[in-house]
Each structure stands twice: as C-alpha cells, then as structure tokens.
Write a structure and sequence with these properties.
Length: 138
Amino acid sequence: VEQEVQVPQAEDAAMAIAPEEEAPKESSSVGVLGWLGFVILNIAAWGIIGVSSALAWPLGFSVCLVYTGLLMGMATCLPRYGDQYKSFENLLWVLGCIFVFVLGLYLSINVVCPAADTGSCPSTGFGSSGGNFVQIDN
C-alpha cells in the first residue's frame, strides 16, 4: 500500500510562515520645487545671518540661535506626519547640527578668545571686537 505524501510548495510555506504583508504606502514626494524652495530659503538665511554678523556679532549670534531653534523644532515635529518626509527630516537635523557648530564658532571667536587675551585671536574687523583698521591721513 502506497501512501501519497504531499510536499508543500515553496509558495505555500512562505505564506504560512510570513503573515500577509501590508501594501506599501505611497510616499508623497516633496518634489523638485519643494527642494529648490528649501535651498533658496537656506541661502537667504545664511545671507541674513552673515549681514547681521557684519553689523554686530551678538546680533548675528541671536539670529543664528533663532534659526537653529526653528530648524530643530521643525525636525522634531515632522515625524507626526509619517515616514514619508524622513529624508526631509534628516536634512533638517543635519542643518541644525551645522548651525550648532556655527554657534560654537561665534562663542569661541568672540567670547573665549578675547577673554584669553593671548594676542593670537583672529581679528574679524566686524562688530564690537574692534579690528585692525588702517587710518589714512590726508
């Protein structure tokens, strides 16, 4: 007496082991114009920070601090809208970290270096730190 043994097919075994997967979510892309707007906005922010730093370094520091807070705040709030903006969120965190570095440069060049008064501080010629200006007598 022969018994017929049924060998399960590979497809059946995979279906039995792995539960039914959900359909992939459609990600709404930011689009080229969205990224272009983001780049233009950040270039404008760098310009505003640069001009305010040229007027006085505390003003530039304040503007940079506010912009860093906005970047990190947006990066913190963006996951509420799902994983579709993950690349945008990562970019916001990278920009936030860059601006934290810039804030540290503000403090090290304008606060720590003049306090040490070693004479090796870079002179920017901007703001209240003075600078090496050449006076021309006519």
